[in-house]
Amino acid sequence: MLRIFLTVILPLVLPTAGYALYVLVVERRRREAEEAHSPAPWWATAPWPWLVFAGVAAMAVTLGSVAMTSGVPPHTPYTPAHVEDGRVVGGGASGSGPSGSGPSGN
Question: What is the pLDDT of residue 88?
Fold first, then answer.
């Protein structure tokens, strides 16, 4: 159930909720400016600062979660791809050091 929530429901509901919140804030600021007979603040009529902030925040969360949840352990040797007996052996992290011929260290 958590997987469905994180991969289906949240990606559909979160942008909609963000847009609804944005519309509420802009309409409230516009209404207050009309009642005071003054122009609305520039940020209340232009969504760009909010969109940039939301994009940077989403990028930071994504990069942080990828950095914390993926990859191989530190100091794991990497063996580059190479040709062995006429066939290409893929590269990757291996536990046997640079002398290993592939990710499994064979």
Answer: 94
